[in-house]
Design a protein that fits this description.
about 200 residues, alpha/beta, Nucleotidyltransferase, domain 5, 5-stranded mixed sheet, 6 helices, about 25% helix
């Protein structure tokens, strides 16, 4: 999909930091939001017309973030502000692959939520490759020895494997432009919760 003439709105609430991104032609505007009050304030400032296309992250990631993003786009459809054909979804792995150009296995660290500065004994979401659409929930030790593995997480971690921080990936305009251009989006609004809830 091309952002040249269209207004594209990307709602990224599954991963932290959450953000609302607006693309139109060469114009790029991104607002990081700390909570849902800020999210809805940012969304209220968007000029959504019948020509806008909205992309929402359906997971995996934050349970509340996924539900909120999907509920918002359902609201747009039910209020007939946008037709269903103007609502698309993407997964957290679609966004990470767009940001990193990594087509191999990816581990998205999700637990524990408290910073540990290590991957050992962590759990998270796993995608084997770009071609394999199945996403699962794994312990780090189950996949740590895979070749060409990329790990991604919120915190700073020192490790010998390839590791990227979400705040850096989610603040880069290229990540979101690549997400649109790679056309990895879907019409599905089925949330990807996947993991059991862990409280630390």
């Amino acid at each position: 999909m091309n952002a040249q003439n269209n207004h594209l709105l990307i709602i990224q609430t599954a991963l932290r930091p959450m953000s609302v991104v607006s693309l139109q032609g060469t114009t790029y505007d991104s607002t990081s939001v700390a909570d849902f009050t800020e999210l809805f304030a940012s969304l209220n400032e968007q000029n959504i017309t019948s020509e806008t296309t909205v992309f929402v992250n359906r997971g995996p990631g934050s349970y509340s973030g996924i539900r909120t993003g999907i509920a918002y786009v359902y609201g747009l459809m039910h209020a007939q502000l946008l037709p269903a054909t103007h609502i698309c979804s993407y997964t957290s792995f679609d966004l990470i692959r767009a940001a990193t150009n990594h087509d191999g296995p990816i581990f998205l660290k999700a637990w524990p939520r408290v910073p540990t500065n290590q991957l050992t004994a962590s759990k998270g979401y796993f995608s084997a490759s770009q071609a394999e659409s199945q996403i699962s929930y794994k312990e780090w030790e189950q996949i740590a020895d895979l070749p060409a593995l990329l790990a991604v997480g919120e915190e700073e971690i020192t490790t010998t494997i390839s590791y990227r921080r979400l705040p850096e990936l989610l603040s880069d305009p290229v990540s979101f432009r690549q997400l649109i251009e790679r056309a990895s989006h879907s019409s599905s609004l089925e949330p990807l919760y996947i993991n059991p809830v862990h409280i630390t």
